Amino acid sequence: MRKRKPKKRIIQPDPRFSDPMVTQFVNNMMWSGKKATSYALFYEAMDMIQEKTGEDPHEMWKKAVQNVTPNVEVKSKRIGGATFQIPSEIRPARRLSVGMKWLIKYSRARNGKGYGEKLAAEVIAASKGEGAAVKKKEDTHKMAESNRAFAHFR
Description:
Layout: H1 20-29, H2 35-53, H3 57-68, E1 72-79, E2 82-89, H4 92-109, H5 115-127, H6 132-146
Helix pairs in contact: 1-2, 1-4, 2-3, 2-5, 3-4, 3-5, 4-5, 4-6
């Protein structure tokens, strides 16, 4: 067991939008410590969103993250030889983190030329309430709803 809870690290805001949430997203996107590359890809995607839709890309990205963010999740728990999927609420920090990771995962799985284009396409789709990341959220919510009978095992 831990002696005490670890301190929450303060995330610095990003250079263009001055938003710590963007920095968190870029940190999740980053591979092998290449933060500058991740920022370049993220800003490239934002520029593509700007020219495709003509709307504010930062607001569109925020809406996409909000649309992808789940409220409940299911956790497996073994009770008396059987494994049950038990639905549970997600704490806000984890909720945001899971939403961002899904957006990144499904934008990487998309087909397109270059990651900037893939991310831009997924963000546009997610902000409209479409796309693979939004489908993942809906599937998670459906699974939690169908296993609501096991909620008392929590």
